[in-house]
Write a structure and sequence with these properties.
InterPro entries: GGT_lsub, GGT_peptidase, GGT_ssub_C, Ntn_hydrolases_N
GO biological process, one term: leukotriene D4 biosynthetic process
Structural class: alpha+beta
Radius of gyration: 22 Å
Number of helices: 16
Shape: globular
Distance between the termini: 6 Å
Number of domains: 2
Organism: Haplochromis burtoni (Burton's mouthbrooder)
Protein name: Gamma-glutamyltransferase 5a
GO molecular function: glutathione hydrolase activity; leukotriene-C(4) hydrolase
Length: 502
């Protein structure tokens, strides 16, 4: 009757329970997100941003953009602090320089009544105070222990953050130990009891701003109080035309079945990689439409534009577009929800890099984001109120007989991973599970091709022979689909996820 696909079985189950209690798809999505902020705190939390694609039971769709916005007194030369994107190791300046708005989702969505809101938060409060093995938090501790790891350093965490992962004797927690987010539990309970205003204007706001400024950030109470989510109509794109740039380029090759032989697979992935390169090159031209033109974004859906790009793709050699300037980041979570009444939510949330800014607000327990780094390589300046560009792709696909709720996590990997799942499911007829677990290929900002390790060696060798540079990566896709009276749901096993339904 209904299903939820989140990053962990616990969070999918919590979302499912909310639906069973007659909560809406939005209620279930919020519950699953709050749960994920505990189970996978390195990915998201209320200290980050979120984009909702919400379809009501009549089929009308709205986009709720609660991404972070640039503070009023942002440093004018802030983007000069962007790291050298040609280097593999990315280290941000310590302190709160890249900490922005905390996009609390409560004031964005209609509250059915206080009971549902309290239920959601109390459920998450139980998760916060309950004991969970660290194996359920995506190997957080193992990442912390690798102090010289290229993407994470325990030494670079704020003091309050380090204390969270130390036992009462000051020893670093081991895999299998427990961690409790007690301050965050208090914060969520306060929001439940006093409403969202306490987050933007009340006690939480004052404590949060004080903590941010103590870490060197320049967010103010005025910034927090004036924050507004952006609610718009969704772009309505014909399912039959697949007007998504990557798919729009690929559909011109008229593939009606999955490539079978090694040569067919090499040619398919080669063309797909070239399409991904074009998508990467166009990223710097797309930004917040409230601060720039959306002409280029709309151009991406046009057949004629895709045709012109496809004509530049050779079948026997690669086209080297050079190195792009934007940063590759690694955070994010996605939740897909389909309720009994046919309503659906596809929502992606992030604190950006792993553990965001690596600063935890000691008085609120909130992990703070470093989202403004998304401007690096994709903008020359920032403006007060501007939202950073995003790879988020929370989508709902609707036809007379089917509804598909899909999205992904993994920052730069989201568009190619979602496109891959859609091609495999819609064009090649694979089940939702098979479409998602099929090996994915990514092209990063350095134009290096990153096939999953399980992609056949002969195919990888063939791609190298065509001139593609090969590296490695990690992504996830979570989806729910209703076809006729049957509902299927799948959470990506790459992140040890598991869907739930009834």
């Amino acid at each position: 009757k209904a299903a939820v696909a989140a990053d962990s079985e616990n969070c999918s189950e919590i979302g499912k329970d909310i639906l069973r209690k007659n909560g809406s798809a939005v209620d279930a999505a919020i519950a699953a997100l709050l749960c994920t902020s505990i189970m996978n705190p390195q990915c998201m939390g209320i200290g980050g941003g979120v984009i909702f694609t919400v379809m009501d039971s009549s089929g009308k769709v709205k986009i709720i953009n609660s991404r972070e916005t640039v503070p009023s007194n942002v440093t004018s030369d802030l983007l000069k602090s962007c790291p050298n994107t040609t280097e593999w190791t990315v280290e941000w300046p310590q302190g709160g320089l890249f900490i922005w708005h905390n996009a609390n989702i409560y004031n964005v969505l209609p509250e059915k009544d206080s009971l549902f809101l309290t239920t959601k938060v109390n459920t998450s409060h139980a998760l916060v105070t309950r004991h969970y093995g660290m194996k359920n938090t995506h190997n957080v501790i193992s990442k912390i222990q690798r102090a010289n790891d290229e993407c994470f350093s325990f030494i670079s965490l704020s003091l309050s953050f380090r204390k969270l992962y130390l036992d009462k004797n000051g020893n670093l927690l081991k895999t299998g130990d427990t961690v409790k987010f007690e301050k965050l539990a208090d914060t969520l309970e306060m929001i439940a009891n006093e409403g969202p205003d306490v987050f933007y204007n009340g006690t939480i706001a004052k404590n949060l701003i004080s903590d941010i400024q103590n870490e060197g950030g320049n967010l103010t109470l005025e910034d927090l109080a004036s924050y507004q989510a952006n609610v718009t109509d969704a772009w309505n794109i014909s399912l039959g035309d697949y007007k998504i740039l990557i798919l729009n380029i690929m559909k011109g090759y008229k593939m009606n079945s999955e490539p079978k032989t090694t040569d067919e697979k090499i040619l398919f992935y080669h063309r797909y990689i070239e399409a991904l390169k074009f998508a990467n090159e166009l990223k710097p031209n797309i930004s917040d439409p409230n601060f720039s033109s959306d002409k280029m974004a709309k151009k991406l859906t046009q057949d004629s534009f895709a045709d012109s790009l496809r004509s530049l793709i050779s079948s026997d050699k690669t086209r080297d577009p050079g190195i792009n300037l934007y940063l590759d980041s690694i955070g994010t979570t996605h939740v897909s929800v389909l309720a009994e009444d046919g309503s659906a939510v596809s929502v992606t949330s992030s604190i950006n890099d792993e553990f965001g800014s690596r600063v935890l607000s000691p008085s609120t327990g909130i992990i703070l984001n470093n989202q403004l780094s998304d401007f690096c390589g994709r903008a020359n300046r920032t403006s007060h109120g501007e939202r950073p560009p995003s790879n988020m792709a929370p989508s709902v696909l609707k036809s007379p007989s089917k509804t598909l709720v899909i999205g992904g996590s993994g920052s730069e990997t989201i568009p190619p991973a979602v496109a891959s799942a859609l091609m495999n499911h819609l064009w090649f007829g694979k089940s939702l599970k098979e479409a998602i677990i099929t090996p994915v290929v990514l092209v990063d900002s350095k134009s290096e091709v990153k096939p999953e390790p399980k992609l056949e060696k002969d195919v990888v060798d063939g791609l190298e022979a065509l001139g593609h540079k090969i590296a490695k990566f990690y992504n996830t896709v979570n989806a729910v689909e209703k076809a006729g009276s049957c509902i299927s749901a799948w959470s990506d096993e790459r992140k040890k996820g598991k869907a739930a339904g009834y």
